Amino acid sequence: MIESFEVMKIFKDKGALLNGHFRLSSGLHSDQYLQCALLLQFPDLAERLCTELAFKIRELHPSVIISPAIGGILVGQEVARALKIRAIFTERNRETDKMELRRGFSVQSNDRVVAVEDVITTGVSIYESTQVIEQFGASVVGVGCLVQRNQQAVKYFNSPIYSLLQIAVQSWTMEECPACQKNIPIIKPGSRAK
Ligand SMILES: [Zn+2]
After folding, report:
1. pLDDT above 90 (res 73)
2. Which domain holds residue 107?
3. CA of 21 to the centre of ligand 1 (A)
4. Is 192 contained in some domain?
5. Looking at the domain assignment, is residue 90 inside a domain?
6. 176 CA to middle of ligand 1, Å?
7. How far is the CA of 58 from the centre of ligand 1 (A)?
8. What is the 3-state secondary structure (H, E, C) of the chain?
9. Residue 72 domain flag
């Protein structure tokens, strides 16, 4: 079983976990930024880490993996591959802003569903995916992610959360941000500007 320090090293080696001064999509400032896609672009690493996650959630005896698009799809696929079960995903309807199952995906009422995501921060997306599943009468027996960024997500779920790495990412308003007070230039990840 992989240790969390090894997971951390893999993330750092691939530039998927950066230290610096960042403006998060929430508008808050942080000294760490996580971009899982930079790790998942290497399929061998994606396979290795997701196999480890699959090993952890195997005790739940899942029959289907559900993930929220887009970030969760790759992880869901690799976890399901390791467990030799189906992987499906929910997508957000742009008009209603609600998560839904499309493409003919479905679950049965006797399915044991585990919801899987790359990174759980607030847990909102993955929670919405589990709500979709429950509309079908299936049970969500657990939640899995590569990285869990805070403990608050736990409040959404009655089922256990499995992760390979837990990182408490600190964030501040601009006024409270220590890096701003030192006039350190800010990076807005996702944009090309540095
Ligand atoms: Zn700042």
Report:
1. yes
2. 4-181
3. 6
4. no
5. yes
6. 8
7. 41
8. CCCHHHHHHHHHHCCCEEEEEEECCCCCEEEEEECCHHHHCCHHHHHHHHHHHHHHHHHHCCCEEEEECCHHHHHHHHHHHHHCCEEEEEEECCCCCCEEECCCCCCCCCCEEEEEEEEECCCHHHHHHHHHHHHCCCEEEEEEEEEECCCHHHHHCCCCEEEEEECCCCEECHHHCHHHHCCCCCECCCCCCC
9. yes
Q: Ligand 1 centroid to 178 CA: how many Å?
A: 7
Q: Is the pLDDT of residue 127 over 50?
A: yes
Q: Give me the number of domains the chain comprises.
A: 1
> In this structure, what CATH number is given to the domain that contains residue 140?
3.40.50.2020
Ligand 1 centroid, distance to 155 Cα (angstroms) = 28
Report residues near ion ligand 1: CB below 5 Å.
Answer: 29, 177, 179-180
Evaluate if residue 160 carries a pLDDT over 90.
no
**Tens-place pLDDT, residues 11-52:** 999 999 999 999 987 788 999 989 999 999 999 999 999 999
In the block, tokens 């508008």 appear at: 27
Distance 32 CA to ligand 1 centre (A): 11
Does residue 193 lie within any of the structural domains?
A: no
- In the structure encoding, which two tokens stand for residue 160, read together? 């256990």
